[in-house]
Specification:
This protein is of the alpha/beta class. It has three helices and five strands; from the N terminus they run H-H-E-E-E-E-E-H. The relative contact order is 0.14. It is found in: Membrane.
């Protein structure tokens, strides 16, 4: 009986955290990325469910961001630096497209994130 109660508690906790369709901290991180990069794509980001936003795909069971397509041809002539720590909040992120965003290198201490380099710079 204790196990049923624990499972129910975890389910309710997850439900509360995802009640707006996606995880609050991931939605906020997307807005932070937008403020750093100024993605025109974010003009199409409305509502609280970031899983429904253009360029954002979520894991269907966890409702966490799994794929970000932030390709932006507008910024190809602007030089920017990427900080991998901006993406730590995305626990289920498997695919990230930042091509044509003018990223020329990394800022800050990105030690330990080098395996992610090929995904972030694709």
């Amino acid at each position: 009986m204790k196990n049923v109660g624990m499972v129910l508690f975890i389910f309710l906790l997850l439900e509360a955290m995802c009640s707006e369709g996606c995880w609050k901290e991931e939605r906020e991180a997307l807005w932070d990325l937008n403020s750093h990069f100024g993605f025109p794509l974010s003009l199409k980001w409305y509502g609280t469910d970031c899983c429904q936003w253009e360029g954002v795909e979520c894991n269907s069971s966890t409702r966490r961001v799994a794929k970000l397509n932030l390709y932006e041809d507008t910024w190809k002539n602007v030089n920017r630096y990427l900080n991998y720590t901006d993406f730590i909040v995305f626990k289920d992120l498997k695919s990230l497209n930042l091509s044509h965003n003018g990223i020329i290198g990394c800022a800050g201490n990105n030690e330990g994130y080098s395996p992610l380099y090929k995904n972030f710079m694709s």
